[in-house]
Automatic annotation (TrEMBL):
The keyword Cell membrane does not apply. This is Ig-like V-type domain-containing protein FAM187A isoform X2. PROSITE patterns: IG_LIKE. It comes from the Eukaryota. It is found in: Membrane. The chain crosses the membrane at residues 441-460. Its main location: membrane. Residues 91-175, 347-419 form the Ig-like domain. GO terms for cellular component: membrane. It is a single-pass type I membrane protein. SMART domains: IG (SM00409), IGc2 (SM00408). The gene is LOC118265714. Belongs to the FAM187 family.
Amino acid sequence: MADLRLVISILVIINSVSCEKDDYIRRKMEALNNRSKELYGTVGDDVKWDSFDLEYLMYPRGDKRKLSILSRAWQEYYECLARLAESVPPPRFLPNVISMLFQGSVARLPCNLCAEPGSTEQLTWIYSKGGDEINITAAIEDFSDIQSYDRLSVEGRVVTIYNVIPEDEGVYSCRDGDTQGGIVIIEVVDTENYTVVKPTTSRGPHPVAPETYEGVILSTQWSQWSECSVCDKVGRRHRYGICYVNLDQNLIADYLVDSEKTTARFKLMELDIKLIELFQAFPGGVPCRSQYLPQPMKALDVVQQRPSEIMIGMCKVPCIERNPYEKLENSNDVYPVNYQLPKQPPPPVTTTIFATVGQRITLRCPGTTLRDVPISWRVGSGAVIVPRQLAAAGRGHVSSRDHLVIHTALLHDHNLYSCWQRDKLAGAVKLVVGAGWQQRWAPALAVLGALAALAAAALLRPRARGQRALYYIH
């Protein structure tokens, strides 16, 4: 009865006291807080009214503006549910996704759960591979050492992984409280065949249109456009298109009604219930070269012959300063306690590649600035590599995936190659080119050379104090 009297008292106070009597409400709420502590002990922190707009938090009553906000929030929630239901055909499996990505691209994993207005969101992302599960949300908060931590960002209900690598493959899923969302399976490839295309607003070649063969649908699923490579002048941007295969929903429905008749009519390959269940579980389709696609369907000529695509477009955007530290919202130049700073990019990553004379070499940027910006390359002390000039010289080229390719390595290609996203250094690759015997002994020689340099520096320090020398180890 004490619980009921307490609840009734709160409702009577809130509905009987005028909104303008803020002091009176505060006194009553303080009394209720004290009474609650007497009945139940310490149940939590007292309500701090100084940080709230009391008038704004009152029940909307006849306030049309507040009613409009609530109505719009519920409308967005029901629209989300409708889109979710429409995207999942019968028998209403969870909306699962298989996402194939080029190595070095950006993965965006949206949570396909709908949040009810007013609910306390407790969104958690889970990553599993080989039977082990990792709580991504907790790992980010605790700075845990997971493979993709420094390249991973969680904003709202979307997880973004920059510069994806094969180690990022696995199963991702989101949970909102006790509600489980569909799974997202990531596959990372480096040898997927692709063609370079342009937007339909430019001269060709243009993307391949969707195709249908006896109920087998072939299409291209596109990523978002990247940011422009430069600002305040004409640059380039790109997006990736992966070949996907799917079964027509009418074909699936016919099979479920009469499997024998449908199988006899379908000539491309033999249908079975496992294939039907696969495309029911993944209504968006399966990548054409996915390891999860059954071999009979993967071996179809129409599937093998359709390539993936990379679209290159021109762009021009103004230079906008993105530094969030320069502008504060209050006059005291102090961040509010609940202000969440954006995640800072990881330090540049450096790798070393050993190659022999005459070898074809592909350099990939090993790092990221946590932005989806095309890569530009520099050599040595900072000379920018112009792709057209490199291709015209016949020595190499920059691929559509921003890889620096050297067709035939020469001794003077031995250098440091740095990769940049606009004016931010993302990483560097040290290329060591030598003959066969040099290649075999290069790591040992590098270590010995470093030790010798350290010893020489220690011996010469008293005589060379105040001077700085630059050593090259070949």
